[in-house]
Automatic annotation (TrEMBL):
Keyword set, alphabetical order: Amino-acid biosynthesis, Aminotransferase, Arginine biosynthesis, Cytoplasm, Pyridoxal phosphate, Transferase
Classification lineage: Bacteria, Pseudomonadati, Pseudomonadota, Gammaproteobacteria, Pseudomonadales
Ribosomal protein listed as a keyword: no
Protein name: Acetylornithine aminotransferase
One cellular component term from this protein's GO annotations in UniProt: cytoplasm
GO molecular function annotation: identical protein binding; N2-acetyl-L-ornithine:2-oxoglutarate 5-aminotransferase activity; pyridoxal phosphate binding
Pathway terms, separated by semicolons: Amino-acid biosynthesis; L-arginine biosynthesis; N(2)-acetyl-L-ornithine from L-glutamate: step 4/4
CDD domains on file: OAT_like
Enzyme kind, highest EC tier: transferase
Length: 405
């Protein structure tokens, strides 16, 4: 095995250039702290983009992975395995769902959800009922189907022709949905309870309630993309609970594995019946290692004290970032829910979110962006208060330098 030293420059020599990673290479993490090759320490408010839900190298996850690794790693879907069955049972017990399909990523979970929605309509109402309504600025994955359902044309550029039968309404505008929905043609409405990549923009409660009513009226399925909002991120196990609106299909990934690649599509028994034997599949979906780790994540995150702790940490982080925003005139609001927060830049700083990310790294704190106008935070759900304090101090130092204050 080649163990020669590697650097950021090697990325440009050997990797497809679809990413533009920063100059540091993290090599070790513990909790909400990360260290790079030079030993520099960072407080992690990125969470792997809402993925490392219990921080880095959580002892419970490490133990579960090691334990399962000594039993069995992978079979195939020609047969099932114990961790997959246990995890599916747990997800059904804790949510609206009655059936689960496992995959490896949010894009795959959404691909399965959209295929299921079309096939369900095809079986029950005929081939003409195949249209999907999504929303501008939404994000649902990078497969050709999911990027087409997503409402950001930049991600589709150069990959056309896109799959047909997809329409985009305006997020939080129920009238725009009413103008598009059709009992004869619409098979599903797909929505993020909080638009993540689109700027950490929460849905209005009456908007989601209205979508549920419209779907019922037009025999369409309501699909919630909870890839980013799920698994405790909002202070609820899934965000639909916060809104009191049940979808017909829900996609889950990111935080579900705490950093191990795993995803799930949750649905009801009647809808699931349309994916009969051979209609869809995944080589690695339901992998024993992934499901064992995800089981530990769900068992931990679903505890009332953990979910309550998310809300308390949210208040602390939100208040701290808003105070920084007011002192330096950089944020107009901090929106979102739980530990998915978006710090919206003031007019003076519009389009410069990446500068805050870079300035934060220089001061030892890792933040995210959501478009050019929002600094996004998605840390571990159990980040210690002391780490939040440290992160806020480091971020304030970054903002102070950036603004020249």
């Amino acid at each position: 095995m080649n163990r020669e030293p590697v650097s950021r420059e090697l990325f440009d020599d050997v990797m497809v250039p679809n990413y533009a990673p920063g100059n540091i290479i993290p090599v070790r993490g513990e909790g909400s702290r990360v260290w790079d090759q030079e030993g520099r320490e960072f407080v992690d408010l990125q969470g792997g983009i809402a993925v490392t839900s219990l921080g880095h190298c959580h002892p419970g996850l490490v133990g579960e992975l090691q334990d399962q690794a000594e039993k069995i790693w992978h079979l195939s879907n020609v047969m099932t395995n114990e961790p997959a069955l246990r995890l599916a049972r747990t997800l059904c017990e804790l949510t609206f769902a009655e059936r689960v399909f496992f995959a490896n990523s949010g894009g795959e979970a959404n691909e399965a959800a959209f295929k299921l929605a079309r096939r369900y309509a095809w079986e029950h109402y005929g081939p003409e009922k195949n249209e999907i309504i999504s929303f501008t600025n939404s994000f649902h994955g990078r497969t050709l189907f999911t990027v087409s359902v997503g409402g950001q044309p930049k991600y589709l550029e150069g990959f056309e022709p896109a799959p047909g039968g997809i329409h985009h309404a305006e997020f939080n505008n129920l009238d725009s949905v009413k103008a598009l929905i059709s009992s004869e043609k619409t098979c599903a409405v797909v929505v993020e309870p909080i638009q993540g990549e689109g700027g950490v923009l929460p849905a209005d409660p009456e908007f989601l309630t209205g979508l549920r009513e419209l779907c019922d009226e037009h025999n369409a399925l309501l699909v919630f993309d909870e890839v980013q909002t799920g698994v405790g991120r909002t202070g609820h196990l899934y965000a639909y609970e916060m809104y009191g609106v049940e979808p017909d299909i829900l996609s889950s990934a990111k935080g579900l594995g705490g950093g191990f690649p795993v995803a799930a599509m949750l649905t009801t028994a009647s809808v699931a019946a349309s994916l009969g034997v051979g209609t869809h599949g995944s080589t690695y979906g339901g992998n024993a290692l992934a499901c064992a780790v995800a089981q530990k994540v769900i068992d931990t995150v679903s505890q009332p004290e953990v979910l309550k702790g998310v809300k308390a940490r949210s208040d602390k982080l939100r208040d701290g970032m808003m105070a920084i925003g007011e002192r330096y005139g950089v944020f107009s609001e901090v929106r979102g829910a739980g530990l998915l927060l978006g710090c919206v830049l003031t007019e003076q700083w519009q389009g410069r979110a990446k500068e805050f990310l870079a300035a934060g790294l220089d001061e030892g704190v890792m933040v995210l962006v959501a478009g050019g106008n929002v600094v996004r935070l998605a840390p571990s759900l159990i980040i210690p208060d002391t780490d939040i304090d440290d992160a806020l101090a480091r971020f304030e130092a970054a903002v102070q330098k950036l603004t020249g204050s």
